[in-house]
Structure formats: C-alpha cells, structure tokens
Specification:
9 helices, 15% strand, 230 residues, globular, seven-stranded mixed beta sheet, alpha/beta, single chain
C-alpha cells in the first residue's frame, strides 16, 4: 500500500519519520523542520488507518510492508515512535537505513507486555481536557493536533494490534546501527528491559522526565538524545 507522505526540506540526505498509534505525520510538526534545518530532506508517512493514508486490514507485518512499498531504501536515518518503531523493526532489513532510531517502540517487551492497545480506542472521542490531562507538558498546538489526528484515525488499528499483543516482537539484534530511545516516564519499558536491549547490541538512551511521546513532551531532550544519530 502506498502511504500518504509529508515532506520538509530538500537535499540528498533523507530522514524518515514514522508515527505511533492514533497519530499521523502531524505529530512531527516540530521535529520535521528541526531535521530539515540540519540539512535533511524529511519524509513523514501516515501509516495505514491513520491520517490521509488508505484503510484496510491491519497487522504489524502490513504496516511494515507499507513502509517498504512507500519509502526509499538506504536513507540516512529512519526513526519510528511506538507503533512506528514496531513497523520499522519489521521493515528494517528491507529498507536498510544507515541508522535506525526506535523511540519508545511498541515491541511488547518484559513485564509491560500486558499493555492492551485496545484501551486506546477510548481516546477516539477525547476532548481537549482529556488530552491535556494525559499530556500536561504539551502546548496548545499539540493538543489541537492530537484532536485532529484522533478524528482521522481508524480505531480498527488498535483492535487488530490487541489480538497479538502478547507476542514479543523485540528484535534479537540490530540489523543496522540502532538507537533505542526510552521515555523516562513512559509505560512500555522498565529499566531492566533497557538493559536487556543494550545486551542485544542496541544503544539505549533515556530521556528523563519525558512521557510516552518524547518528541512532544520534551523536544529539546528528544533532539539532545539523538546527538550522533541525526
């Protein structure tokens, strides 16, 4: 499936951004320009069932196949958040970016494997107060964007992911040089899980104080945590 793609910047060095569940390319409204200012041509996709991309059947493998169908291989850096990190991990051997960054990826690892994606369906009808309650560090623009992306999101994506939620999809090893960026206040990883990833050959960095969506909670910390990788 060909995905809707938004671009910032120009040039031969390409950075790819892949959003998490419930979101779309608009989640990167500050990250895209920041990378473009560093000389990248930035490509941000809408995963199937999100934003302006088509709907259809949903499964991790299909999200990954869509990335391969849509994005160029061999880009400078590919970065995936949450569901985007899962899709990237499943596509990375075919895409072969020079570097991969997984920001709080939804790999169902360790004791946090009981997180059920179906719970996200309740956010479909969230109002500004609910978004603000769960994301107290966001500015008004991010709250508005979240409401817009929720309106364009197909909840079937969460229900489909729920069916296989107990399957551990943590990569055995990095296929390309890879960074895993963890949210200090996130809910997907424990400190022990981070150590296990380091033992598998990933570089692991934690953005302390940031929640699940690191790039929206703390853009400065997010970018600082990527130094040497972007």
């Amino acid at each position: 499936m060909q995905l809707h793609t938004h671009e910032w910047g120009t040039g031969d060095r390409i950075a790819v951004l892949i959003h998490g569940i419930m979101s779309d390319h608009r989640t990167w409204h500050r990250v895209g320009p920041a990378l473009a200012a560093r000389g990248y041509r930035v490509l941000a996709v809408d995963l199937r069932g999100h934003g302006r991309s088509p709907r259809g059947e949903y499964a991790p493998e299909l999200f990954a196949d869509d990335l391969v169908d849509t994005l160029p291989a061999g880009v400078e850096v590919a970065l995936g958040h949450s569901l985007g990190g899962l899709a990237l991990a499943l596509a990375v051997e075919r895409l072969r970016p020079r570097r991969a960054v997984y920001s709080d990826p939804a790999w169902s690892t360790g004791p946090r494997r009981d997180v059920d994606p179906a719970a996200f369906v309740t956010f479909k009808k969230a109002d500004p107060g609910v978004v603000r309650y769960f994301n107290p560090r966001w500015d008004d623009a991010d709250v508005e964007i979240e409401l817009a992306t929720l309106a364009d999101w197909d909840t079937g994506t969460a229900l489909a992911l729920s069916e296989g939620r107990l399957r551990d999809r943590t990569p055995e090893r990095p296929v390309v040089p890879s960074l895993v960026q963890l949210a200090g206040e996130g809910f997907l990883f424990t400190e022990e899980a981070g150590k296990e990833l380091a033992g598998r050959g990933f570089e692991v960095r934690t953005v302390h104080g940031a929640g699940y969506t690191i790039h929206r909670d703390d853009l400065t910390g997010f970018l600082a945590g990527l130094e040497g990788w972007i």
